């Protein structure tokens, strides 16, 4: 019996050592500020990218719910305001900044990408042409439907609804409903 316990304790020490090693290895690359009452319901993946100018910063303001499968990568700043609900398998690439306003609901499989490859010169490989970044701003009380993609430089007005499967490449007015590929204005919520 004592032998099993000893092996178990050694196993826990190894796990603790691995976690500490990962923390100290990645610590300079990202900073997470998470309040006590935020719920993280499953595994999330954080993939910081090394950048001499900035590191990945994730700040959570107030009570948020983050479901399983969230993947965050980049070297920018992700801000989640109070009451944000990120559902399963959302994908975030943040090399500039993404701000998500209070009480916003983000359905499963939504992608938010603030970066795009440059591709103007056909003589140079695309991967060698660098990238462009622009911030994404999502207002308060927004509902983003399943499988939508929010592209760089977009501002979504407060109270808006983004239809499932939409590709949002331009701004939306407050209290508007937008949908389609690419997205277009459909109607206002109070109409």
TrEMBL record:
Domain of life: Bacteria
Keyword annotations of the record: Transferase
A GO molecular-function annotation: transferase activity
Keyword match Ubl conjugation: no
Pfam families, per the entry: Hexapep (PF00132)
Coiled-coil segments on the chain, per record: none
InterPro entries, per database record: Hexapep, Hexapeptide_acetyltransf, Trimer_LpxA-like_sf
Keyword check for Transferase: yes
Record protein name field: Acetyltransferase-like isoleucine patch superfamily enzyme
């Amino acid at each position: 019996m004592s032998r099993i316990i000893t092996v178990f304790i050694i196993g826990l020490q190894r796990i603790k050592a691995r976690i500490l090693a990962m923390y100290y290895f990645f610590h300079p690359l990202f900073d997470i500020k998470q309040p006590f009452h935020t719920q993280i319901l499953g595994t999330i993946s954080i993939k910081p990218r090394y950048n001499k100018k900035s590191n990945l910063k994730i700040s959570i303001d107030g009570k948020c719910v983050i479901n399983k499968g969230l993947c965050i990568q980049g070297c920018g700043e992700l801000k989640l305001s109070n009451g944000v609900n990120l559902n399963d398998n959302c994908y975030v690439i943040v090399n500039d900044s993404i701000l998500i306003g209070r009480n916003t609901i983000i359905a499963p499989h939504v992608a938010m990408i603030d970066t795009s490859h440059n591709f103007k010169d056909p003589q140079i490989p695309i991967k060698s042409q660098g990238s462009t970044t622009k911030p994404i701003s999502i207002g308060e009380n927004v509902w983003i439907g399943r499988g939508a993609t929010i592209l760089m430089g977009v501002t979504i007005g407060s109270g808006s609804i983004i239809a499932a499967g939409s590709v949002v490449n331009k701004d939306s007015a407050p209290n508007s409903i937008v949908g389609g590929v690419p997205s277009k204005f459909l109607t206002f919520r109070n109409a």
